[in-house]
Write a structure and sequence with these properties.
single chain, 396 residues, alpha/beta, CBS-domain, 2 domains, five-stranded mixed beta sheet, three-stranded mixed beta sheet, 12 strands, 15% strand, globular, AMP binding, CBS_dom, protein kinase binding, protein kinase regulator activity, CBS domain-containing protein
């Protein structure tokens, strides 16, 4: 169900060219992300890091004490951030969409089991939901919903027969039954500023947001598409190189990411154990490390989908290593950085690759932290915001 359009939805399987209204094509960088060959067949796949040539050569590893007046690097950093925020205020959510798209919308009355088959067949990991009874947008189906279903299956094994009968309209009841906090259902009008869409996503803890319009003839809602944090940051990286090149402070200096209480797992842990970690810590990915805390891979929420294909819940007892072999052949690998990498180099990686998070490591590949796309977006939107900027960002 959906509206014919000449753009391609965000649930399309492959990257498409970004729209760059009134912007020239980005300069080609000669510094491509470095790919490290697979360590072995199957689950240990390539790792990618931001270009090291952008890393400062003589920067202190200690956090500098703020001084007055600001250093030139600090001033450039704030200037770059202000430029990005101004860009987000003048661009709309519609601008982020590619030139062509398809949109798959699932009816709320569809069996959850059937919805899984549709996602797998179309190579997508999420889809908008539609309430045909009320003719309105009803939320968003994501990998987290399948994880919640698995938790329900584990907590109430006596109701295993009911699991096969659940419909998409039952997702909220499943959340209540297992005691998880549901994500706020948010949407944004496609003509609203992109800054507003970013703010709503961060406030609701969502990683994607549907664009919902009103049909002027029927006065009913219509879902235009879905945009993700990844697509927004890609759009920024492609079209604002003059601003991102000013972001020369390092990951360490700006405190980007999470570095304490990190949930990790081993290759020999079961998929169910990792799913439980995701639910308990409210996270969408778990780094896979060896006994020396060396990063081997990352298990993501979307990796759950192939594990339960066809209702094969018994496969959840298999190991993480076995589950990761089910990834598609075009999986691009794990993206990493170090604390001395600068934010401008991270935007280079975002511009050139399909990045969903960065694993922070040291020189010996020991796990140090995780940088999510939410961390990057939050830093861009709210760091160093002046009172005048805050007024500009306030909704009408």
């Amino acid at each position: 169900m959906g509206n014919p359009s000449s753009r391609e939805s965000n649930n399309a399987p492959a990257d498409e060219p970004q729209r760059a209204p009134n912007a020239s094509a980005p300069a080609t960088s000669s510094a491509l992300p470095s790919y490290i060959p697979p360590l072995s067949r199957g689950h240990e796949l390539p790792f990618v890091q931001p270009s090291s040539y952008l890393r400062p050569k003589f920067r202190s590893r200690t956090t500098p004490v703020p001084t007055t007046p600001m250093s030139p690097i600090d001033e450039e950093q704030l200037q770059g951030l202000k430029g990005l925020r101004n860009f987000l205020r003048v661009r709309t959510s519609y601008d982020v969409l590619p030139l062509s798209f398809r949109l798959i919308i699932l009816d709320n009355d569809l069996l959850i089991k059937k919805s899984l088959d549709i996602l797998i067949q179309n190579g997508i990991v999420s889809a908008p939901l539609w309430d045909s009874q009320q003719s309105r947008f009803a939320g968003l189906l994501t990998a987290t919903d399948y994880i919640n279903l698995i938790q329900y299956y584990c907590q109430f094994p006596e109701h295993i027969d009911d699991v096969e009968k659940f419909r998409l309209s039952s997702l909220r009841d499943i959340e209540k039954a297992i005691g998880v906090l549901p994500l706020e259902t948010v949407s944004v009008h496609p003509s609203r500023p992109l800054y507003e869409a970013c703010s709503r996503m961060l406030k609701s803890r969502a990683r994607r947001i549907p664009l919902v319009d009103i049909d002027h003839e029927t006065e009913r809602e219509t879902v235009v598409s879905v945009i993700t944090q990844y697509r927004i940051l890609k759009f920024i990286a492609v079209n604002t190189e003059q601003h991102t090149m000013l972001l020369k402070q390092t990951v360490r200096e700006i405190g980007l990411g999470t570095y304490s209480n990190l949930a990790t797992a081993k290759m020999t842990d079961s998929v169910l154990e990792v799913i439980n970690l995701m639910v308990v810590h409210n996270i969408s990915a778990v780094p896979i490390v060896d006994k020396n805390n060396v990063v081997l891979n990352v298990f993501e929420a979307v990796d759950v989908i192939p594990c339960i294909k066809g209702g094969a819940y018994d496969e959840l007892k298999s190991t993480v290593g076995e589950a990761l072999t089910k990834r598609p052949e075009d999986f691009q690998g794990i993206y990493t950085c170090q604390e001395d990498d600068r934010l401008d180099s991270i935007f280079v990686t975002l511009r050139q690759s399909r990045v969903h998070r960065l694993v922070v490591i040291d020189d010996n590949w020991h796990l140090k932290g995780i940088i999510s796309l939410s961390d990057i977006l939050k830093y861009v939107l709210f760091t160093g915001v002046t009172s005048d900027e805050a007024e500009l960002s306030a909704p009408p």
